[in-house]
Amino acid sequence: MAASGTSRVLVVQDAAFPAELQAAVDARFRPVISPGFAPPPGLPEPAQVLLSASHDAVTGDVLDAFGGTIKVVSNFGVGYDHIDEAACTERGVLLGNTPNVLTAATAEMALALLLAHARRVVEGDARSRDPSLTRIDTSWMSKQVAGSTVGIVGLGRIGHAVATRCLAFGASIAYHQRHRAPPDQEASLGDAAWCETLHALLASSDFVVLCCSCTAETRGLISSAQLSCMRPGAVLVNVGRGALVDQEAVALALERGALGGYATDVTDPEPLPEGHALLRAPRCIITPHTGSATVRTRKAMLDLALANIAAALASSTMPASPNQ
Ligand code: DGY
User: Fold this and answer.
1) Does 6 have pLDDT greater than 80?
2) How far is the CA of 99 from the centre of ligand 1 (A)?
3) Which residue ranges does the record assign to the D-isomer specific 2-hydroxyacid dehydrogenase NAD-binding domain (predicted)?
């Protein structure tokens, strides 16, 4: 049943959702799918909403192309580095996002990548299918999370959830961010050690997990200088954004054996172009930005993204907005 007052609101999406999710949009709004948010010709009425489902850029030019009719950009995700927040503010366009509901799923993906890398799950799978393997290989070794130090870059919601899970696996937790966490938070993470500098965190961690958002300050955070500070054999995990790292430097460090491994759910761009250095690098696991892609989480994200739209159109406070 269409919600009264919103049945004619035109929503432009950059990608369609799977059918069972798309039905929830269709029931409340009139969606038009337009990759890159190019204004589709012959719209039945002015579009009021951009629903950002697949990380296409939302710039001032994109907003202006709709002739000033966009009232809200609703981001299906917590990270909104692909949306020009200042351009939205200048034009009086509201911005919504979906924090909290994806924290557990994203933290699970970080653990999946970390454990898969530590225990060589992907290589082990290939080895098991290799017909030349006729006896158990007693030389096959891997890394253990229990007893190791996991360094978290960005102890926000997702970073904290990753830390609690690593703690349950028997790791010690270190973290780096600008401000030290409150004592009770450190205590709840097994007396997690605050590293005031990124260098200190990199030098003391067996696994480093990037959980921070991508901003002007954090873009390119991990480059060759930072990689050279890491412990021998240490593994870098990324569930933040691909642009947090210099991917060419990571690929080179993997080639040279200077970095133990890279396991990432995010790349820059997404997907990587054929032949990219990271696709050829050894000890590198890449998943296609699917950290939040569980049915339960994606449904909760969409519910929140639609609630943000409804609230913005009704001029009430959005349930989740980075700037409201
Ligand atoms: C987020 O919400 O930022 C995740 O990366 C999914 O886009």
Assistant:
1) no
2) 9
3) 111-291
